[in-house]
Every structure is written in structure tokens, then in C-alpha cells.
């Protein structure tokens, strides 16, 4: 047996996985900003369950899932007002299990590059005729390119901006996540675009940012009026989780992400809110929440009341996402970011490692993903995916 096979089998061993889980737990609890904030909330909470109950619930989760339930703190499950049955408690999936065992079993790493780099994703979507925002240009290795990767000058960009008169221009890092690193420029007159920080979108700006990263530059979309009424300052996207198994596609979970406080990004990691949407009807939950587990019955900026509100174009969105997932058969599970424009739904991006935090809104995902035996994934880890 060759060294490569020995190394692969060692990586797949149960002992190796347990060591990875312990390392993940120790480093994650210390290095993750969001986890640190959750622990701080726990320490300051004056409405906690008795210590004996917290210990029992944590041990119950550990025994069932085979790993430490860090989500117990992230989802504030220790609070007295979160009294859950054993079944309800076990419906929440731990991060290590989800990202280290479950998703890698289905989504093969060799395809991940298609969706981890926004420039490649744009090409991928275009090859599949998936509708997406208009790309003005791409900044690759300090050079400007068209969609077809033909080098162009900044003068051609200026001409397009002058003629098209986009309201906004988004400059997104190719490998950015969670809304970090995005520049948003507003049209001030026929030719000039300026950010809120008074940065001007020009050739000097592209030369400056191009020394460190690659970027995709896209025109803003005009979102549907029903979405703008909830919050007008950001493009509010739907996070829609799909499953593609045995040639059948189903939607597992939906939430609408909303900006707040005048911010132009809707991501929860950027101070945004999220609210779950009924998969069948498009009806909103009666409250939205933030990453810090704050709860809102109405949007704090617009006073839009969530209870009894419905997405009127929900069937169009469902049909669009199902068709997108069918075309992306390389992946079993994907988290799609979908915007509803005045001309219909558009795919912003798709994520093979989508955020598990969303399960807090729906009471956990174990039953949604039909995970009956977590040990199956411990036993079969490495047969399809890898860390």
C-alpha cells in the first residue's frame, strides 16, 4: 500500500476525526468573533436555565451528534424561555458535524471552485443561462476584462456608465464572503460614481484595489417594490437552501435577509436581519432576528410589520431556484442568494458551505435534512469528501 493511501486512510479514521473535532472546538471557541460574542451573552444572561439542566442538555447533544454543541451558545438555547424537548433540542445541528461531516459527504471538493470565486461563478452561471446581475467588468491580476475575458480599457467602462446611468455600482472581491470587502458607489451625475466614504470609482481606484485582490464589478439591480418597502437601502436577498438528490430538487429552507440602520449590505454578519419564509406559501415569520439573537416584530427602520406579510411573487422565485439547482447537478446541497428584481428573480451567488446559523430561525435542521443516524457520517467520512 502506497504512502498516499496510508495517509488517506489515516485521515478517514475515527480517531483522526475526533482529534479534528477537539481541535476545532478549542480553536473555534477562542478565535471566532461570533462565538466569543455568544459566550459573552451567556455570561451576562440573567435568565439562564439551572446549571444542571444546561449540563444535561449539552451532554445529550454531545452523545447524539458525537461532537460538542457550540450552537447551544450561538442560539441562546440556555435561556429559560427556550424550554425544548429532547427531540426539539436534538433538531439543532452542531457546526462541526455539518461542515466537517455532512456537507463534505455530499458536495465534492473538486467542484467547490465553481462557487468560491465570484469571477468563476459568473462564468459558471452564464454557461448555464442562469439569470444574474449585469457584470460591467472584471478586475483580474491588475487588468480589466470583459465578461468574455477580453482585456479592455477604463475608458470603455466610463462610456458604459455614462450611457447606462446605473444608480449604483458594486465592486465585490472575488473571494469575499459575508458581505465583507464590498464597495458601493452611487451615481452623482452622468459620469461620476462616489461611495459614502467619498471614494471615487475611477481608474486610480481600480489600480489601488487591484494590487491585492481580484474583483467583479456589477451594476445594481432595481429590486421589486414589495421588497424595497421592507427596507430600501440594500438589495435584500433570499437565502434558499436546495437539495438535489436522485434527479429530484426540493427547497429545504428559505429566509429573507434585510439591511438595517441605513446599511447597503443585507448580510447578518454586517448588522443585517433575517426572517424565515414559509417554503410553500411565501409567508413571513412573525419576527426577524439578528446575529446577536435580537428579535424584531417589525423592521426597526421602516416599521414594516412582518406578521401576516407574504411574498406575492413567491411562486416565480421557487420555480427559478428549482431550475437553477437542476442545472447545478455537481452539488447536492446549495444555499442560493436570490434577489427579486422588477424583472424577476436573479441569482447573486450560490454557496456550498452555507451558514448553519439560519437553523435558529426554524427550530433546527436535522429533520429538514432527514439526518436520522449521525454516526453514519462518522463511519463513512472520507468516502466522498475531505476536510
Structural account:
It is a single chain. Helices cover 35% and strands 18% of the residues. The protein has 15 helices and 13 strands. Helix 2 packs across helix 3. The longest helix has 18 residues. The mean pLDDT is 90.
Chain-wise SSE layout:
Elements: H1 3-12, H2 14-31, H3 33-44, H4 51-65, H5 71-74, H6 86-90, H7 95-106, H8 113-116, H9 118-127, E1 135-140, E2 143-145, H10 154-164, E3 168-173, E4 183-187, E5 193-194, H11 203-209, E6 215-219, H12 225-228, E7 238-245, E8 248-258, E9 273-276, E10 288-289, E11 295-296, H13 314-327, E12 333-341, E13 344-351, H14 359-362, H15 374-379
Antiparallel strand pairs: 1-2, 1-6, 3-4, 3-6, 4-5, 7-8, 7-12, 8-9, 10-11, 12-13
Helix pairs in contact: 2-3
Strand order within the widest beta sheet? 2-1-6-3-4-5
In CATH terms, the superfamily of the largest domain is: ATP-grasp fold, B domain
- What's the alpha carbon Rg, rounded to whole Å? 22 Å
Per CATH, what is the topology of the largest domain?
Answer: D-amino Acid Aminotransferase, Chain A, domain 1
Q: How much strand?
A: 15-25%
DSSP strand tally: 13
Task: State the low-pLDDT regions, or none.
Answer: none
How many independent structural domains? 3
Structural class: alpha+beta
**Helix proportion range:** 25-40%
Biggest pleated sheet:
6 strands, antiparallel
Can you tell me the CATH class of the largest domain?
Answer: Alpha Beta
Q: Which architecture of the largest domain does the CATH hierarchy give at level 2?
A: 2-Layer Sandwich
Shape verdict: globular
Amino acid at each position: 500500500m502506497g504512502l498516499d493511501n496510508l495517509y488517506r486512510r489515516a485521515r478517514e479514521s475515527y480517531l483522526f476525526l475526533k482529534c479534528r473535532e477537539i481541535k476545532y472546538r478549542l480553536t473555534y471557541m477562542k478565535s471566532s468573533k461570533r462565538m466569543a460574542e455568544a459566550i459573552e451573552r451567556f455570561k451576562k444572561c440573567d435568565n439562564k436555565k439551572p446549571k444542571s439542566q444546561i449540563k444535561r442538555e449539552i451532554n445529550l447533544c454531545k452523545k447524539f451528534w458525537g461532537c460538542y454543541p457550540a450552537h447551544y451558545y450561538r442560539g441562546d438555547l440556555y435561556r429559560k424561555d427556550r424550554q425544548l424537548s429532547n427531540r426539539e433540542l436534538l433538531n439543532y445541528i452542531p457546526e462541526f458535524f455539518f461542515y466537517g461531516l455532512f456537507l463534505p459527504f455530499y458536495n465534492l471538493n473538486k467542484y467547490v471552485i465553481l462557487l468560491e470565486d465570484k469571477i468563476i461563478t459568473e462564468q459558471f452561471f452564464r454557461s448555464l443561462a442562469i439569470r444574474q446581475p449585469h457584470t460591467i467588468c472584471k478586475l483580474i491580476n491588475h487588468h480589466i476584462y470583459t465578461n468574455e475575458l477580453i482585456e479592455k480599457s477604463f475608458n470603455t467602462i466610463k462610456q458604459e456608465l455614462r450611457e447606462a446611468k446605473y444608480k449604483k455600482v458594486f465592486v465585490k472581491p472575488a473571494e469575499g464572503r459575508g458581505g465583507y470587502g464590498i464597495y458601493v458607489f452611487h451615481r452623482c451625475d452622468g459620469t461620476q460614481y462616489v461611495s459614502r466614504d467619498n471614494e471615487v470609482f475611477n481608474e486610480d481606484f481600480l489600480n489601488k484595489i487591484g494590487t491585492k485582490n481580484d474583483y467583479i464589478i456589477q451594476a445594481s439591480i432595481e429590486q421589486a417594490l414589495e421588497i424595497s418597502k421592507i427596507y430600501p437601502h440594500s438589495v435584500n436577498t433570499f437565502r434558499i437552501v436546495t437539495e438535489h438528490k436522485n434527479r429530484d430538487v426540493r427547497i429545504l429552507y428559505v429566509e429573507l435577509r434585510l439591511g438595517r440602520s441605513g446599511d447597503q449590505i443585507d448580510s447578518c454578519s454586517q448588522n443585517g436581519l433575517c426572517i424565515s419564509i414559509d417554503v410553500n406559501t411565501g409567508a413571513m415569520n412573525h419576527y426577524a432576528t439578528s446575529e446577536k439573537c435580537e428579535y424584531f416584530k417589525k423592521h426597526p427602520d421602516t416599521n414594516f410589520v412582518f406578521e401576516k406579510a407574504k411574498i406575492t411573487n413567491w411562486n416565480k422565485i421557487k420555480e427559478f431556484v428549482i431550475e437553477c439547482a437542476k442545472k447545478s447537478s455537481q452539488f447536492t446541497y446549495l444555499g442560493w442568494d436570490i434577489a427579486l428584481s422588477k424583472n424577476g428573480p436573479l441569482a447573486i451567488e450560490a454557496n456550498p458551505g452555507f451558514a448553519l446559523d439560519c437553523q435558529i430561525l426554524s427550530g433546527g435542521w436535522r429533520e429538514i435534512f432527514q439526518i436520522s443516524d449521525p454516526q453514519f457520517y462518522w463511519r463513512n467520512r472520507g468516502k466522498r469528501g475531505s476536510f
